[in-house]
Amino acid sequence: MATIKHISSKNADYGAAEAYLTFEHDEFTMKPTLDEAGRLIPRQDYRLDTLNCGDEDFALSCIRANLRYGKNSKREDIKSHHYIISFDPRDAADNGLTVDRAQALGLAYCKDHFPGHQALVCTHPDGHNHSGNIHVHIVINSLRIAEVERKPYMDRASDTRAGDKHRCTAAAMRYFRSEVMEMCHREGLYQIDLLNGSRNKVTEREYWAKRKGQVKLDKENTALLAEGIAPRQTKFETDKDRLRQSIRAALSKSKSFEDFSAALMQDYGISVKESRGRLSYLTPDRTKPITARKLGTDFDKAAVLAVFQQNAHRAAAKTQNRQEHQPQLSKGIQRTKPAQIAPNPDSPQRLVDIAAKRAEGKGIGYERWAKTFNLKQMAKTMNFLSEHGFTSPEDVDAALEAAISGQHTAGEKLKELESRITANKELMHQIGIYRRTKPAHDGLKTAKKPERYREAFHADLTLYEAAVRYFRERGLKKLPATSRLQAENEALISEKNGLYTEYREQKARAAELQKVKSNLAAMLRQERTKEVRRDWER
Fold first, then answer.
1. What does the pLDDT average to over 253-272?
2. Cα angle 494, 496, 502; round to 5
C-alpha cells in the first residue's frame, strides 16, 4: 500500500536536503551519523536525480532562483517541500518493484505534479523500521521558476505563475493521494484507499513517540533480563493506543450509545460526548478531549453506530437461533464453514508428474521427495474440498467458472472506470489549455494587424483551436467545473480501489481452484488405475 507524506522546511541550507538523502542519519535525532574518524557515512544504496536544475547542483540552482525573483529571504519563509512516497514492502517480492523502477515512477510523478520547480528525486531501498519498504523522496524548491498548466486543485492564479511559490493545501494533498493511488493501480502495485481516512490514524508524531518509547522499553527490559527478572511489558503503547483498545472493548459489548457511554465511564473512566455530529473522548489524565478524527475512522459516529447495529442484530440472531434449535439439542448443532474467497496460505500445490520427471532424467532421490510431496498435497486437496463443502468434481468446476467469471466481470468494470478516469483527466487538461490560451484568442479580435498578431501568438492560438475542436467533437457547449471533475475522479478512483481488490481476490481464487481441479483429476486417474489393476489380478 503506497502512501504519500508531506513535510515543509524553513531551512535555507538546500544542501542539507541532499546530504540527508545521500548520507546515513540517526532516525531519532535526524543528525548525520559519523564514523570513527568523524566523517559522514554514505548510504549503502540509493538513486538520485535532479530536475530543472540545468548544469548546476540542486542547492546552487535554488539559491540563484531565489535571488533572481527576490523570494525565500525571510526566516519564516518555507524554503522547500519534501514529499515521500512509500510503497508496500510486499511489492518487491510480489509485483517486481525494484529501486530503479521506483526511481522512474518518482521521476514521472515529480514531472507531472511539480512542474516548474527545481527538484531532487531520490529512492531508498528500505525505511527507518527496516521493513523493506522502498520509498521515494521528492524535494522541491518552494519557488516556481516556470509558468505551468493549471491543475484541478489550484484555486489561485499565483499557483501557476513563475516567480510564485508552491502551496500544499488540503485540496492539493487529496489530489496527490488520488494520483498515487492511480499510479499504483496502473503499475499493478498494492494500494489502499488514501482518500477516505484510515481505521487507525497514526500521525507522524505518534509514530515517532511509539518508536522512541519502544527503544527505551527494550533497554529497560534488557537490564531486567540481565538481573533475572521477567519484564511485564514488551510492547510499548501510546496513550492513543490504549484509548483505542478501551473504546473497542466497550464497543464489543454495547448495543446503544447509552451502553457505550456507561461502559467507557465505569470500566476505564473515559467520557464520550457528541458535538456537531462528531465524537470526542476524554481520558482521566487529560483536560482536553481527543476527537475521533485523530484516532481513526473506526471511532467516528458512523462507525460506532454501525457496531451498535451489528451487536443488536447478533444478539437477536443468537436468541432466535437458540429458540429454533432448542428441541434438537440432543442431536448437537451442525456447523459448516463458510467458503473462503481469499486464497489460503496452506492451499494445495499442483501434484508432481513423477513419470514425466523420471523421463527428464530425475533420479531416485527426487522421486522419493516427489512421492512425499504428492501425498501431502493430496491431503491438503482433500481438506480443501471438505472445508469448502465440495462433494464432486462438478462442484469444483462450477466454483472455478464462477471465479473466472467474477474475475472477468471485475476486469471489464476496471477497464470502464480507467477509461472514464482518463477521459476526465484529458478533459481537465483541455480546459486548462483553453483557459490559459483564451486571452490570446480574445486579443486576436481586437488586433490591428491580425497576421502579425497570429504569427506572434501562433503556439497559443493553435492550442486554443485544438481545445475548441476537442469540446465540439464531444458536444460540450458549457464547460464543467474542474473541481467537479476532480471530485468525480476521486470517487471513481476510490471505487476502482475496491474493485481492484475484488479482482485480485477472484484471480487468486481461480488460481487456487485450478490447482485443486488439476490435483483432483490426477487423484481420480490414480484411483481408476488401481481399480483396473485389482480387476486384472482377479
1. 86
2. 115
Integer Cα distance of 353 and 123 in angstroms = 44
Mean pLDDT in residue range 49-78: 93
Residue 251: φ, ψ to 5°: -65, -35
With cut-offs at 50, 70 and 90, classify the pLDDT of residue 142.
very high
Helix/strand/coil for 438: helix
| SS3 sequence of 473-538 | HCCCCCCCCHHHHHHHHHHHHHHHHHHHHHHHHHHHHHHHHHHHHHHHHHHHHHHHHHHHHHHHHC
- In the chain, the N- to C-terminal Cα span, in Å, equals 63
Interval 59-73 mean pLDDT: 94
State the Cα–Cα distance between residues 512 and 381, nearest whole angstrom.
Answer: 10
Chain CA centroid to CA 418, Å: 18
Whole-number Å distance between alpha carbons of 304 and 199:
12
| Residue written as grid cell 503499475 | 187
Residue 263 CB: number of other CB atoms within 10 A? 20
Identify the band that residue 216 occupies on the pLDDT scale cut at 50, 70 and 90.
confident
Closest CA to 234 of 213, 209, 262, 203: 213
pLDDT per residue over 172-208, tens digit each? 999 999 999 999 988 989 887 677 666 667 776 777 6
